[in-house]
Amino acid sequence: MRVNPSFRYPITWLFAIGCFTCAPAQNALPADNTISLSELQAAAAERAEQVLIAEQQQRAARLELDAFEAGLKPRLDLAATLPNYFRTSTEVTQDDGTIAFREIELNNSSVSLLANQRIAATGGLIGLETRLQRTDNFALDTKSYNGSPVRLTFRQPILAFNPWKWDRRLLPLQLQVSDAALQAARADAALDATDLFFNLVSADQERRIAETNRAANETLFDIATERYELGQITRGDLVQLELEQASAEQNLLRAERLVGRASADILQYLGREYGGQLLQPEAPEATADLIGLEIVATRALSLLQQRPELLDIRQRVLQAEREADRIKRELGPRLDLDASIGLIRNADEIDPIYQDPQNERVVSLTFAIPLLDWGERGALNKRARSEIELARQLGERRENQLEGQLTQLLDQWATLQEELVLATRIRDLAEERFQISQESYTLGAIPLTDLTFAQQNRDLNTRAYAETLRAYWTTYAGLERLTLWDFINDKGLWR
Fold it and tell me: Is 375 left (phi over 0), alpha (psi -120 to 50) or beta?
């Protein structure tokens, strides 16, 4: 069986194409401008515009989570006011109720060291501090100190909204969504690259067909000229061959223009400069293993749960629940607990503050109850519940849409595997028939019309095979895009 030279490639390339989903990104095209499907997909998965945007969004989500986790760790702050000098006059209430104005000149400096620890589960805050304050009264020529060697504080909103509890659930999910969105962007880029690659394959195939037909027609025209001079063929047959030769020349020019356009589209998609270079595609074949690749529908459907759209719906539901909790607590009763225990002392000298401090205890419990809000809380709660329900409904609809798309692609995949086998066989038979017809015409066994028909049939089936091959790889790339799974190597996509 003869194989069309347009699609005859080493077995190493077949293996590379079969494993295209795990190929590393290529930062530069080969020196001879040849490119395979795996190379283009890998380059697109790294350089496409949507991938660059998704990478930035992933970095932002990761940094936001890092900042949140850092905020839950102990924090140490140093605060100082040095100096705090002022000279002014101020009103002073006398014993008889009258107001007198007195000039004052003070320097009131302070320094404190404070360590805080946030409690994410409850929203409370534990603090440990030490503080020292000095006041210089220049008008009276005196100084005094007030300090707390150590103080332990605790603040706990009991019924208040706790944003840290919700952020602990939302931010990891947000990072998971951005991770999945990045994988989806890479899969989208690979699918786009597949379409661009087969545009190049189709253009290059037309060029190869035109070159083959031109070479064949030149040989046949030389033979036909000799036979015409011998009176073995008519002038019409000779003109027909000359017409075929001119058409092949025209088709070659048109095909080269299409190759240039397809090459420019690929380079521009990768963010590279197009300088007139023509890319040479390493057209893939489908091996027996790939033809027999089975994708189980139930497993493929289960993989949809990792799609960024569905993860984003989960995030929206959680955000709506967060908003409902915020409205409920901020417009509802409030109960706050503040407590501290420590040591404190004021003196004219600094030593007594640390050598003989006094005990300090503070406890306060405050509450607030809304008595009349004219239905504000109820209306906002209903709105929050409706947003939760809407997010869940949208999630169900989106999941159904994705399942429908995946089921359709699985049906196409099963059909295309059989169709590709037939298309390969038909292409090879058409090529063999053309070779036989060419030899027969050279020997004068068949008329020119039979040869022309065989040539047209070969070209037609070669194009049909290429379109089937495009549909095969495009469908497979679509399956990977939806499931974010590499079925050939049985692992997560682009990992």
Answer: left
CB 232 within 8 A of CB 474: no
pLDDT of residue 5: 36
**Angstrom distance (rounded) from CA 47 to CA 190:** 11
* CA–CA distance, 76 with 74 (Å, rounded to integer): 7
Would you identify the CATH topology of the domain 5-65+167-318+385-492?
Outer membrane efflux proteins (OEP) (1.20.1600)
Which residues, listed in sequence order, are joined to residue 79 by a DSSP beta bridge?
112
The phi-psi region of residue 160 (left if phi > 0; otherwise alpha if psi is between -120 and 50; otherwise beta) is: beta
Amino acid identity, position 287: T
CA 258 to chain centre: 32
Both tokens of 15, joined, read 């293996």
Domain map of the chain by residue range?
5-65+167-318+385-492, 75-119+124-159+334-369
CB 114 within 8 A of CB 129: yes
Cα separation, 494 vs 491, in Å, equals: 9
Tokens of 470: 């495009």
CA torsion angle 447 449 455 458 (round to 10): -110
| 21-57 confidence digits (pLDDT tens) | 333 333 445 556 888 888 898 889 888 899 999 999 9
Give yes or no for a cis peptide into 447 (omega within 30° of 0).
no
State if pTM tops 0.85: no
